Amino acid sequence: MYFWLVLLFVAGTVGAIMLISFGGSTYTPHDAEMHASEYAGTVREAHGPVTLFLWVSYAAIAIFSVWYAWLHWSEFAEMFRMM
What we know:
Elements: H1 2-23, H2 29-34, E1 37-39, E2 43-45, H3 52-71, H4 73-82
């Protein structure tokens, strides 16, 4: 049992590292400078695109949220009933 958990954790870590490493490689520093905003000459803000790593993270959080709500719905229903 624990072997599969360790294997899943290692595979997930390797996948996350690959997504982080290669996700933003097409967005150059020049592109970031073009979209930058400067405030009072002291603060500079720049942003980039939403990378594949972020999309995968958002999807994982959404799937976990739905699964958790489904699993514990009776507890939530009781809490709402008490209101």
